[in-house]
Every structure is written in structure tokens, then in C-alpha cells.
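Re-running the complex after MR caught last week's input typo. The corrected sequence lines follow. Everything else is unchanged.
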Amino acid sequence: MQTTWIGRSMARVGGVDRVTGAQLYVADIHVDNVLHVKLVHLNCARARIAGIDTADAARVEGVRCIMTAADLPQPVPRYGPVHRDRPVLAVGETKFFGEPVAAVAAETEDAAASAAALITVDHEELPAVLSVDAALDPAAPLVQDPSLRANDPLAQTNILHEWQFGWGAPGDARADCIIENDYSFPMVTHFAIEPHGFLAAPDPEGVTIWSPIQHPYVLQRVVASALDWPVSRVRVIAPDPGGGFGGKGWPKFEPLMAFLALRTGRPVRLVLTLEETFQQVRRTSARAHVRTGFDLSGRIVFQDIHADFLIGAYADIGGRVVSKAGYAACGPYRTPHARIIARAVLSHTTPSTAFRGFGTPQASWAVESQLNAAAMRLGIDPVEIRLRNIPAKGEAFIPGDTPADGEWDSALRLAAREIGWHEPMPKLRGRGISLGLKSSATASASFALVRLHYDGSASVLSGTSDMGQGARTVLKQIAAQELGIPPERIAVVMGDTSVVPFDSSTSASRSTVFMGNAIVKACRDIKDTLKRMAAETFAVGEDAVTAGNGYIRVGGRELTYEQLLKSHFGPPRGEVIGIGQERNAFVTDHPLGGKPAFWELMCAAAEVEVDPDTGMVQLTRLALVSDVGKALNPQQVEAQDEGAAVMGLGHTFMEQLLLDEHGRIRNLGALDYRIPTIQDVPSSLHSVLIENADGPGPYGAKGAGEGGTLAIAAAVGAAVNQAAGVEIRDLPLTPERVWRAIHIRT
Amino acid sequence: MVPAAIPITLVVNGRQHALDVRPHHTLLEALRDQMGLTGTKECCSEGECGACTVLLDGRAVTSCLVLAVEAAGAEVVTIEGLAAGGRLDRLQQSFIDAGAVQCGFCIPGMIMAAKYLLMTNPHPSVDEIQNGLAGNLCRCGGYSRIIGAVASAARSER
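Corrected-run output:
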């Protein structure tokens, strides 16, 4: 009988190492003869650098190298995943608080820190652009040197790019009810428990970089381009990240580390403090002005959305965040007329990057809150108003794009049921509901190699990173299923560009679908080869051979893979290598470069209790429903949905990076920047998966794991409104903000 | 001027260690950098995240806030000392079974804090588990599986 490894909550691969302390994260890797690196930055965001005095620092015992921009190739190499705008070290002017102006490499961490403290930077602080309004002021200083984008008509502004999407004729559409509001979403940081760390070492072919990077092949490309080398000379080793969430997706200090390793001829190591990590990665803050028209039955007539996202001093992947969030900003609803303007606005702040949800939590907060406001205005139940607008499976809701790919109405109904939507409401309590829809990966490619070894065991070689989502486990389950080999005889090898084939990224919830399909194809490639080998070995036609469930059948004979390989190869031995690839081609005339392979849909329903005397909001019940197609490992999917939801509670209730007038982060570090603790989780949290096997991935899977961040805020906001009678449009919903809304009505 | 090292001895996971430690170095640094016990993790370095939790003379401490010299003569248990003879502690097994482990970076500290909780309160209520682990941050999961894992480990002891 065919054993199935799919749909089983197989224990996490690497679980034992993670509970015993054996798992090696980047900071745990020992490299002989290593130099320790410390970075030097200024105590303000923007400053003109007049000179750097390193004389005292150079005299510290154990210091081997002090690097400033002057020590790099000239002009100083710039890097970035899309725009090559970020210098390896600050040139002439710092652009954000935390941008390094110098790096020290020394024999000990103490020596590096002592020397770094002795470096004096003669500088003049300059006015910094720290908000959207400040950045758009025609008199504002330009964050980016216009020569970096000479042919861009926006080069003389602080707008990196403006996207306009839309359809229908929103200007002419007539609506019975128009809801028009402004919303804001705070600047928040990833706060992976593992701070960023990097190692680099010269090697005979070039340079090796160790980084807990989600996208090893992006890092290889970016470091190679900074060095002006072919990619073959850069080897990236990517230890499993201790949490990524997008913050470890795109290169940070790896180019600098490569230059330091090559300059010193020795391995170099840099582990950031949590404070330094806060200064390097964050989510874009956003504000949105939204006009939504409805007819009297609650059907959406038009959406007119103008969203400004405050990205940082360098583009990183910020532009892509804005375009993808903007494109799908209308959410999972039929929208006859739409106009969406989304702008990526540069500022003298930490470069914003990918962060779980990729811009969609910001857009969802606004658009879903509009639906809740309309429900209230029109006297329609918030579940019902959504049901009236939600597209049926197969129905296009963004013209010309991937249609609705699930029974999304059932997510609404299930979430409402889970939370007791129609139960009598206790005093001071309220309930709210929201959907969230994220565009998944568009144009991207995953390649996989599966090696069937001589003894019938197998190795899967994949460029995916396992940052906690459990990719190793799920990819092993897929290979076990396809080959008919038990998981304990399969090794999943990841995280080394000298070993694993190309993969675009571990992002956009794409790995199960893209890498999963690539592995399925590689396994089928192996089985095709085995059939040919059996036909050749036993001198029969290929049609007389079948392969499945770990056996090859030739006529009446049944052979294990091991028996066939021994018969075929004999004493010299050999192996069968399967190759698989899954690609979504780049489409030049699509606004995003391609249609999303699937939609990631989440419905959240929340019940809260508000204390009007303190403004404290207690989450009493939370239900999450996601449409995942097929949960290959249900426990892992549910655990990710729960985690994403609790992460969403952070930006909903407490998280926000606060800047002072110098552009410094005021709440820099774990003492002052709060994330949800074990005491903040709702007493009742239910995660439900919809599985209709209707996704493009193996066995009908869709991607999952980000959904929880998308829908939480608007669900909670609506619940607070019902409980306390206040409509708050700025996150987070801190006790102070809720209290003020209740007691200081304007 | 680098301050002179101070010789100390301490017992870690049942094994005697003699070390020369710098007076400003923490127990966390001594464990990771001098003894090679990298299972204990560093995140916030200010006692807020709990990733570096170990047992010091039977009490849970954040080892980033304990100077190495303060641990002189002490008995320390780290995550590496929990699986006696290669057999997982019931907490370690229950964390795996409950799906409480994702990236795993917070887990060593989380388990050591839970160990201390169960040492002092073998059958905690959900509230008591939440209080006991309030100083340990996780960013991947929703905490409910951690609560479940600790409760399950406590039950298995009954």
C-alpha cells in the first residue's frame, strides 16, 4: 500500500538540534584565525563627513585593519538588489542613523570595540528628512544623489518611484455612500531573536560569505557585482536563520565583509547587536488616503487609494514592497472601478526592506477598515458586506490577472463561526473581522537536484532557506512521497551556493509551491531514468517497466531502487541525478512583471474587551482561517499562521519605532521597543485551514505563513470600535491612543 | 588598557572548568567564547529577551546580566546539559511534539526558563506558565504551543 507522507505533521527536521543547543546559527560557527569586526557610526542620521581620524584606534593592540570609504576602490562600490545605490561605507555624507563610516577588524572583540570608540569623525550634522511630509516638501534636501538615477524624471525629488494602477472609470463612477478617511501604519522592526551576523573569508576561488540570508543567490549576485567579479568566485554559505521575516532577505553588510576579508587576507566576523540590527532593517511606515464608494446594498463601486510609503535612505527592496502592495490594495473584492497611486518616498531613516506581508498589512489596515466603516454606515453586518463583494472561485477581481483561486467566502463564514460572531455580546466587548490578501511570487525560478544514491537513499539539494517555516521538513516529505523512500533515508541539503542549484528567493510564501514543484519534477526525472535503466538492464521495452512507491517493476519482478542500481552499475557504483525546475516567466507588460502564482488569503476574527478607564485592550478571542490549498504539514502551517497573527498583534497594539529630531531611534533595543510576549496572547486562539487542493503547488498546495500579519489590525480595530465606540485610524492601538479616543472626543 | 584576567573555577553541566575571565565579560561570553557552549544564545544583551537563560546554582538567570566572575564557584546548567546521556529532557521532547519550535533561536532560553518553572512549580496553571516565561521572547510562533508544551511536560511527570 502506498504510504503517504503528505498531510502529516511530521516532526520538524532539525527539531532535536534546536532543543539541545546543537543547531549552529551564524554566530555559533567557529572559524580559525578570525578577526572581529566593529562598525563605527555617527550619533545622528545625516551628517557631512569632513575627516576621519583613525590614528589612536590604529594603536590599539590587536587592531589589524581600519577601513573607511577612502580605503575602498574608487568610486566606492555601491550595491543593492534592484538599485545599486548603497555605498559599501558612507561616502561624504551619512544618510541614516546607523550607516557605518568605518570598520575595524581586530584580533578580539574587545580590541575592535576599543578601537572603534577611538575613531573620531569630524562631521557636521545636516537637517534630516524623517517623514513623508518633510520628504515631499519642495525645499527638502534630496536623500539620494540625483546622479544615481540620472535619467529618472523623479531624480530631483525624494520620490523613488510612483506607481499608478487602476481600471474602470473611478472618476465617473456614482456611489450612494462614500467613505473617505486617512490611515497610518507605524514603522516597525523585524526583531528576529537572532541578530544579524556575517562571516567572510578569502578562499582559493575568491571569497566565501556566511550569512543567515534568505536568498543565497541574491547575495551571491550582489556581492559579486560589488566586487566586480563573476558570481562563480563568490560562495555563499547560508546557515539556517534564527528568524528572518524578510529582514534577512536582502544583502546588508556582506559586501563590506568581503572587502575586509580580501584586504586582511583573513576570515572576518561581525555579529550585530540587537540595537544595530534595529538600525538596519524595518518595515515601511505608510499613510493612505482612501475614498471608497458603495451602493446602498454595500457593494463596492470604486476604490480611490493614495498611499505613501516611507522607505529609507537606500532603496533595498522597498520599491517592490510598495508596488506589490499597491497593485493588490483593493483586497479580495470585486472592485468595478479602481485608482491606486502608491509612492515610495525616500527618507534619512533605516532602509526599509521586506517584512512578512510585504506591504499588504499596511494596505489592508486601510482598505479593510473602510469596509468596516461602510458596514456601520449602511447598517450591514461586517461579514455580510464582505460576502456581497467577495469574488467567486475563478472570478477575476483584478482585470486580466490571476482570478480568485479559492472559496474565499468560506473563510469568512468559518472565521465568524469560530469566534461566535452571532453570540450575545458581553459588556465592554466587541468583535471585528477582516480579510487579507497578498499577491504571491510572480516571475521567479527554483531549481532542484535530487540524487538517488547507490544504496537507494537520496539527497535533495535546494537553495531554499529554512528560517523556521520548516522548509527542510516539507521538502523532505515531498521527496519521500515522490520517490517512495522513507524520510529518514533522505537528506535535505541547503544553504551553500557551491552545492545547491539556483533559487530566486525564500520569500513571498513561494518555497512550498516553487521549490516543491521543482523537487517533484526532479523526482519524476529520477523515476524516468530508473525505468530506462531497468529496460536496458533487463532488455525489455520501457513500457514493460513501472516505477512507484520505492519499487521498479519489470514484468513480474519487483526490485528495490538499490537492487536495480546494483544490477545496473555493478561494483564501480554510480547514482541517478534528477533535475527539476519550476519557473514563472517574466512578463514585460504586466505591472508586476508577472501574475502571482497564487493568492495568499487569510481571514481574522477578533473579540476584544476594552477597559475605558485605562484604554487597555484585551484580546479575548482570535480566530484565523487561511486558504492553503493543501497543508503538507498541518502543524507547521498552523504554527506559522499563529505566529504571523501574534506578530500582527505587535503592530496592532504596541510596536512603533520612534525617531527624535536627529533621526535617532528613541526606543532602540528590547527594553523600550516592545513586541508581544507570552502574556499578550489571546486566551483563545484558533487556527483553521481550508484545504481544497486547489493550489498550483504539490498536491494542490498554496503558499502560507504570512497571512496572519495581513488581517489582524483591521479586525481588532473594528472590535475596539464596537466595544468602545471609537474609530481609530492610526496604529498601534496603544492604551494611550484608545483612552484619548474614548475621553477626548474631537 | 585591557584589564587583567581573573582565574575562576565553576561547574558547567557537571564538568569542572578553570578559566581566566576578563572582569567585564559576562557569563554568557564565557560560556560561548571560552567554553564553546554555543547553545546559549545572545540577542538583546540587556536581560529582556531571555535567549541566554541558564540555571545558576539552581535558579534561572539571564547570563548576559551575570558577570563571569560572579559565577566563580557556581554550578551552571545550560541547554547542552539538559539531555542527560543523550536522552531528551521531557521538556525538550514536548517542545518538539507540540510544534513549539520554529527557527529555534529562542528555544534554549525558553526551555531553561521552563525547566526552572517546573523545578519550582511542577504543575503550573496556564497563568503560571505565562508568568514564568514572561521574560522569554519568541518572534516566530504564537506562544500557545509553548504553553502547551510546558503543560504537557508537567503532565507527563504526574
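None of the earlier attempt is carried over here. Chain A has a mean pLDDT of 97. Residues 440 and 508 of chain A are 5 Å apart (CA to CA).
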